[in-house]
Specification:
The protein is α/β, with parallel strands linked by helices. It has a domain of 248 residues: Amidase signature (AS) domain (Amidase signature (AS) enzymes, Alpha-Beta Complex), CATH 3.90.1300.10. Helix content is 38%, strand content 14%. It has 15 helices and 13 strands. α4 links the parallel β2 and β3. α9 packs across α12. The relative contact order is 0.14.
């Protein structure tokens, strides 16, 4: 039963083929059997999960598609009474007093929390290697990374350790690991899902979305978690449609743009797989149009200047005083700040704070931060113009398949290059979907990225579902 999609699991629960308690126990057994190989979970909430499953069974109606469904949350999403660490020493034992909006909505729908999933520290990373609790390994090859920063959610979904997971995507942190692990990853439009209670990386970029086994599953989850919140002023009054109604198989009349810049520097096997995927879209009736987005080449410097500037400000709250790790070896206030942060933050977080503080400092603000903000505005205009001509864009999610653990850790710029194709959507607040699209000669997954204009998630689901139904890639499972 643990290999079923969300839609299939919901059907099984409604038809009483198995109970939520049986299902939850099967997933807990799977975690116990496989997670020593993967390290996808940092906290397993066995008692809480079984209690929630029992409650769902007692109610017994399973009207909501998420009722009784075992899932996990990336460990930067606050859960009242359950450790939320951001996978950092500075929050190693932090227990929030409140729930994030996204978890409150899932809990209200009857979802069963199996635990908290591993991530790069404060979601800063592209490989889950910066986690204080160790790297998450790829289910297809445990010597390789699962991607990041939502490596734990992606690996756990690919390895059937949960039905679905909730991650965050600032510049690719859902889509890239979904691509590297062969599952479906959705970055929503900025503001589509409330950020309240989710530990901030870069506040004008951060989004929350599902990692799932199928496109239909992603639509089902988004139906529950999307929509305005009084706790988050960046959530608009945009209506939330029933996303499952967008799941069509034909693409007649749909215009798919192929941006040439998204194929520059991409490994040949990856490019070939995506071109084959685009041919599949053609066969389904889509009209394929070549487009150009010249500012894409400035995406990495623009993105990293802006997010690190925002992050350096967000990290100021971790001072060793209010909550989190406090040094035992300090007497003066300034010494407490400096030592607590030096001990509590990892190298990537420290690097982020230094770059961001430098870019915002007097004398450099205009040259770096302000210039990057202007390029961001121009990039948004460029994408708006392209989306006047096409309904979606299709491109690779990652320029390469999963790399070996440790391969890029000593070269931050090489690691940042892993985000080349995913950061533009983060910069522009656009929704993006990564769907399984093939495997390379080493048996490593390749993902196709579909992008749409803001609040047009329906277009992603339409094209993604049609592609998925016409291919078999999403049905392949790793052997563990």
């Amino acid at each position: 039963m643990i290999d079923l999609s969300l839609a299939e699991t919901h059907k099984g629960l409604k038809e009483k083929k198995f109970s939520s308690t049986e299902l939850t126990q099967a997933y807990l057994d799977r975690i116990e059997k496989t997670d020593d190989k993967l390290n996808a979970y940092v906290t397993v909430t066995k008692e809480i999960a079984l209690e929630a499953a029992g409650k769902a069974d007692k109610e017994g109606k399973f009207k909501n598609p998420l009722a009784g469904i075992p899932m996990n949350l990336k460990d930067i999403i606050c859960t009242a009474g359950i450790k939320t660490t951001a996978c950092s020493k500075i929050l190693e034992n932090y227990i929030p007093p409140y729930d994030a909006d996204v978890w409150a909505r899932l809990k209200n729908a009857g979802a069963v929390l199996l635990g908290k999933a591993n991530t790069d520290q404060f979601a800063m990373g592209s490989s889950s290697e910066t986690s204080y609790f160790g790297v998450t390994k790829n289910p297809w090859d445990p010597e390789r990374v699962a991607g990041g920063s939502s490596g734990g959610p992606a690996a756990s979904v690919a390895a059937d350790q949960c039905v679905f997971a909730i991650g965050t995507d600032t510049g690719g942190s859902i889509r890239q690991p979904a691509s590297l692990c062969s599952c479906v990853g959705l970055k929503v439009s900025y503001g589509r899902v409330p950020r309240y209670g989710v530990i901030s990386y870069a506040s004008s970029f951060d989004t929350i979305g599902p990692v799932t086994k199928t496109v239909e599953d992603a639509a089902m989850v988004l139906n529950v978690i999307a929509g305005r919140s009084d706790n988050d002023s960046t959530t608009p009054d945009e209506p939330v449609p029933d996303y499952t109604k967008s799941l069509k198989t034909g693409l007649k009349g749909v215009k798919v743009g192929v941006p040439k810049e998204y194929f520059e520097g991409v490994e040949k096997e990856t490019a070939d797989a995506i071109n084959q995927g685009i041919e599949t879209l053609k066969k389904l009736g889509a009209k394929v149009v070549d487009v150009s987005l010249p500012l894409t080449r400035y995406a990495i410097p623009t993105y990293y200047l802006l997010v690190k500037s925002e992050a350096s400000t967000n990290m100021a709250r971790y001072d060793g005083i209010k909550y989190g790790h406090t040094t035992d070896d300090a007497k003066e206030l300034l010494e407490i700040y400096m030592k607590s942060r030096a001990e509590g933050f990892g190298d990537e977080v420290k690097r982020t704070i230094m770059i961001g503080t430098y870019a915002l400092s007097a004398g450099y603000y205009d040259a770096f931060y302000l210039k990057a903000a202007k390029v961001r505005a121009l990039m948004k205009q460029e994408y708006e113009e392209v989306f006047k001509k096409v309904d979606v864009l299709a491109a690779p999610t990652s320029p390469f398949t999963a790399f070996r653990i440790g391969e890029k850790m000593d070269d931050p710029l090489a690691m940042y290059a892993a985000d080349t194709l995913t950061v533009p959507a983060g910069i522009c607040g656009l929704p993006g979907l990564s769907v399984p699209a093939g495997f390379d000669k080493n048996g490593l997954p390749i993902g196709m990225q579909i992008l749409a204009s803001q609040y047009k998630e329906e277009n992603l689901f339409h094209v993604g579902h049609a592609f998925e139904q016409a291919t078999e890639w999403h049905k392949k499972k790793p052997e563990l």
